Amino acid sequence: MRDDDEYCDRPFASPTFAEIVDRRLSRRAVLKGGLVATAALATVSPMALMAAEKAQQAPFSFKEIERGVDETHHVADGYDADVLIRWGDPVLPGAPAFDPSNQSAEAQAKQFGYNNDFVGYVPLPQGSKNGEHGLLCVNHEYVSAEVMFPTQPEDASDAAKAAWKKKRAEIEIKAHGGSVIEIRKEGGAWKVVEGSKYARRVTSDTPMTIAGPAAGHDWMKTKADPTGTKVLGTINNCAGGITPWGTYLMAEENYNKYFSGSLADDDPRAVAYFRYSMPSGGTWAAAGDRFDVGKEPNEPFRFGWVVEVNPFDPHSTPVKHTALGRFSHEGAESILGKDGRVVVYMGDDTRFEYLYKYVSDGRYDPKKGVANSALLDKGTLYVAKFSDDGTMTWLPLLHGKARLDASNDFDSQARVLIEARRAADLLGATPMDRPEDVEPNPVTGKVYAMLTNNSQRGQNGMAQADGVNPRGENTAGHIVEMTPDGGDHTATTARWEILVRCGDPKRDGIGAVWNPATSENGWFSAPDNCAVDPDGNLWIATDQGDNWTSNSLKTDPDQPKGEIPKGISADGIWALETQGNRRGTGKMFYRVPIGAEMCGPRFTPDGQTLFVAVQHPGDDSCDKWPLFKGPSTFENPGTRWPDFKEGMPPRPSVVVITKKGGGRIGA
Ligand code: FEO
Ligand code: CA
Ligand code: CA
Ligand code: CA
What we know:
alpha+beta; 9-stranded antiparallel beta sheet; 26% strand; binds calcium ion
């Protein structure tokens, strides 16, 4: 999601002042004991230093690309980067030809949606590891209205304005959600399979089931659904995951931005609304009363969940799994524990929010196929508490335990899950610098959390810098590596280290820390998504949001006017080493066109294809770019990537990257 202040704020309410004082005191005690230095500040761990004695070869042999910003995308020499599918391309049979000047909800419902974020690859046949034929599952997070729709006349009548507002909301509802497409590699080139029996569009009004402990709770009931078990659609699906049984998890992130209206201050739901920044002045009430909280106050409780889609059956009903908690979900990547229980790692991407994981009660059974889905309805949700000494604990969110009871207005486990943030506050979870993707590495057993940025730590009574979030003004973000105790993802304890503190290592005062082997192109800011390739190497996708200009312009204040500032770069993909004496070395592989963020990324099981999602080209801060005369609009966009045709706006697209002549990406 657009990485600006408005979207990432947490209300200045909790933790309480007393809790903040508590934390300060405990931190001081730890600092006095001198324990903080090794765990919090080391980018090269003691183990890595030992390994450094046997110097290793860099695993990434590609030639790095250069930082920069322009109208198109770039990949390392020796690789091809081809557009696979764009906003408006056909997904379902009967999809009309794309006509952005005359878009309709009916057309959009059959076409590839807007702002592709998560990308999952599910091999075909089902259960295989085929790297040349599979289903691509892609989230459509939100829309960039200025470059998506023609500018409307300001002098239009009120009736015309109202009609456009309604039509626009109806198109947007169909442009959100996700797509499932069948793809195949033939003669070295990937193509979308036309007329596929798997093709599917999931939108913000697709009928879905609500399952797990919160299903049927009074707060989940609406006029349209007195059972509290059925809901229309999913909203603002950012990252996600693919389960061990091959289904597609969509994480509902900033759903609160779509609701408008107001709730009475003395309404019993007011605290829950406040803690989730509800409502937030959305525009979709023009298309349906359920988005007006004055008319349907429980509707927002039916969003903010993890949604499971069975990509093998386009007629299956998606399921919202409430056992995984309600918050601004980013990713939902899963892995099996040693005993076969399923563990799902998740971030709550808002400043000072938390890191979560879910552990199922039951064990994965490969023979059961997609019926393993029930594992996501019975289990325990945990929230992370980090200590400055490099250890961490996963605290269970269980009704009736640790003050999560009637004394704190939790009537049931349903309420604990619906108000997971408030429950996590009470447990003393560690407020983080905006957790985005959290991904386990199946090769090494480590887990990586992308903390994208947080410029407000220590301000307005919010949490101070601590070991795991060591910077006050953290504009560039950092990456935390966690090692579960006993090598088991179900363990409730782990150790942690900071892998890199992002940002320009040459810029004074921002505290960036990289391996010195990192080149001037190898550092990055604002890690957001990540992927692990089949060899266990880590790849990072960035989303600097509007900071992409301001960060870098400050890097070189003497830059002559009219010239491209040095150090500046669009978002992209960086390979990041995690082992040996090169641990913490970044290397730039791909970058997006101006105004875009980098999403995906996803490897095929053979490591020979990397899918990346270029989200909102021509959007973020194009007008601040000295070489563009803004503002960026449908008529005058910051770029017309990928078509570069007059009259055609920029189109969010999935790009497929392969090595010329074949072979593993990066090797
Ligand atoms: Fe949608 Fe947290 O990025
Ligand atoms: Ca994201
Ligand atoms: Ca990921
Ligand atoms: Ca982001």
